[in-house]
Design goal:
Chain lengths: 320, 264
């Protein structure tokens, strides 16, 4: 009889990543039985001991898992899931989770709900809520098969606090069926804070009038230790690199503070930023859609508002 | 080399959010009046990826496949106008309300029916449900490896090489064919067909297949992921506009509110 919640833990540089703590927190709050974790990789046994709040930590430690491939990780995760026999499997909507979850779901004869932002137990089963249609809608899903698998959007759940380390159990897997291989990996270079990780994002739109309009956006980003984002129009016009584009076809960000400067708030853009905890809109058009999603707003011209805001924030910060 | 590109027709995503409506009873999006459905953006880019392979090797055959209502024919025609050779429309009443796995089962059955497929391309996600799972499901069903988030796709010597986009890196991944690759927007814009190509596309072969034609019965397509509700979230943030006679006053008011809210 399937029971409990199995979460996919991830480690980076020997440390457990934040989303893993969020998954354990979410799994505990579901109250759907014992919480266990699986950690897949090469040389990850030490990191397994740092996972807290899970009763058991399954570890698949194998050189074939040194770099992520769908083939190898799917087989390893399936080996753990078959052993643990959970009713629910949760992963982060991360590089690994978003690629692995559907393949694991198929292997286990079940289904997956991707990029969920809310989880609930009802009538003995998991029900998930996720954004759809570029964030314009919410879809609530249930599962007719077991285990129910969901990927969970980072920062959508409160992390587990404290707790003791779980008992580590090693699980073997057979790497002979791995067909794909990673032959090269080039780290993306970015200056300052990475857009997806940033707690503060200052984004500019076409209303800035040209690349020079971003000077004050950059200054504000620097002041708040944030990252610079751009609308699609701005990236298309070549004012800013495509890597800074926020939106459906760009990056999806969910910072604590998102300041949208001269951005109208088209669906395409909102799909990338609607998960932000607090949106501040600065736009000269009081009817701009962005104000509908914003907590704070200034109706005004960025050319005068933005320099004034930089000075005001410096002053307020200096007051301590 | 035979490439199948799976494309999905979706409601135009580039509409003002105010025109976005949901029929909560039917759990469906109400298509905005007078706005034609479009090819899901990433799927058009997947067609572009196929055409680049065909540019390099003219003997490549490209089939554009879509599951949907009769109107999905337009999504296929768009791919044919871009230079694909053949179309396959999968349409049947039993295909309504499939989950992603059901959709993948139908697409995979049609791919198997074609028989000689080396490479299957899809967009990294459809821009309606944003799940990003269909390509992976197809790969599992046909027993092929999958590589997701491609920014370039090249084939040689029975292998496919994919540059895979991650937020923090670009990976080069090699896989034997047949394989499934999902394509991301970093690959570049889809080519814009010339009028002449649009005309020529209407004369290209297009098969229309129902469930029975691809050897499927409705029972095999029952959803495992059930849709219980679809709604437009109520935005409970009422914007607080900063008062002030000058930009400096407005800016100072905002700075103080941000400070009070512990956001700076």
């Amino acid at each position: 009889m399937p029971n409990g919640v199995l979460i996919l833990a991830e480690a980076e540089g020997g440390e457990i990543v934040t989303v893993t703590k969020e998954l354990i927190g979410a799994a505990q709050r579901l109250g759907a039985g014992p919480v266990s974790a699986m950690l897949l990789g090469s040389g990850v046994e030490a990191a397994a001991g740092k996972i807290t709040g899970a009763e058991k930590v399954y570890v698949v430690d194998d050189p074939a898992l040194a770099q992520y491939t769908n083939d190898a990780y799917t087989q390893a995760a399936a080996a753990v899931a078959q052993k643990a026999d959970p009713a629910i499997v949760l992963m982060g909507q991360t590089n690994i989770g978003r690629d692995l979850a559907p393949a694991l779901a198929f292997k286990l004869g079940t289904a997956v709900a991707m990029d969920t932002i809310a989880l609930e137990m009802k009538d003995g089963g998991l029900h998930t809520t996720r954004p759809a249609y570029g964030g314009n809608a919410r879809a609530v899903n249930g599962f007719s098969t077991t285990p129910a698998i969901a990927t969970v959007r980072p920062k959508s759940q409160d992390p587990v606090e404290g707790g003791s380390a779980g008992a580590v159990e090693k699980v073997a897997f057979d790497a002979s069926g791995v067909r794909t291989k990673v032959t090269a990996r080039t780290a993306a270079t970015s200056e300052g804070v990475r857009l997806e990780d940033a707690d503060v994002v200052i984004a500019g739109g076409r209303g800035l009038g040209g690349p020079e309009g971003f000077a004050k956006v950059e200054e504000l980003a620097k002041l708040l230790n944030g990252a610079v984002g751009a609308s699609r129009a701005v990236a298309d016009l070549g004012w800013r690199p495509v890597s800074e584009q926020v939106g459906l076809t760009g990056k999806v960000v969910s910072p604590t503070l998102y300041v949208a400067v001269a951005i109208s708030g088209a669906s395409q853009h909102m799909a990338g930023c609607s998960g932000s905890k607090n949106i501040v809109a600065i736009n000269k058009d009081a009817d701009a859609n962005i104000f509908k999603a914003a907590r704070f707003g200034i109706v005004g011209d960025f050319a005068t508002v933005l320099p004034a805001l930089v000075e005001a924030i410096k002053k307020v910060k200096a007051e301590g | 080399m035979h490439i199948v590109v799976c494309v999905k027709q979706v409601p135009d995503w580039d509409i003002p959010p105010s025109s976005f409506k949901v029929d909560e009873g039917a759990k469906k999006v109400v298509p905005p009046a007078g706005v034609a459905p479009v090819v899901s953006q990433f799927d058009a880019i997947a067609v572009e990826a196929a055409m680049r392979i065909k540019d390099a090797d003219a003997s490549t055959k490209v089939t554009v496949m879509s599951l949907g209502p009769a109107t999905a024919r337009d999504a296929i025609k768009n791919g044919l106008a871009m230079g694909a050779d053949e179309g396959a429309l999968l349409t049947d009443d039993v295909f309504n309300n499939l989950d992603s796995l059901g959709t993948a089962n139908v697409l995979a059955a049609a791919i198997k029916k074609l028989g000689d497929v080396d490479l299957v391309l899809t967009g990294r996600q459809a821009v309606d449900w944003d799940l990003g799972v269909t390509g992976t499901y197809i790969a599992e069903i046909i027993g092929a490896p999958v590589v997701t988030f491609a920014k370039s796709v090249t084939v040689s010597g029975g292998n496919v090489t994919v540059e895979r986009v991650l937020p923090d890196a670009v990976e080069t991944v090699e896989s034997p064919l047949p394989a499934v690759v999902t394509v991301s927007n970093e690959l570049g814009e889809p080519r814009y067909p010339k009028l002449q190509q649009i005309m020529a596309a209407t004369k290209k072969p297009m098969n229309t297949w129902a469930a029975a034609d691809v050897g499927l019965d409705a029972g095999a397509l029952a959803p495992k992921l059930t849709l219980e509700a679809l709604y437009v979230p109520v935005v409970d943030t009422k914007v607080e506009l900063m008062e002030g006679d000058t930009p400096e006053e407005q800016a100072m008011a905002l700075a103080r509110r941000l400070k009070e809210a512990k956001l700076i």
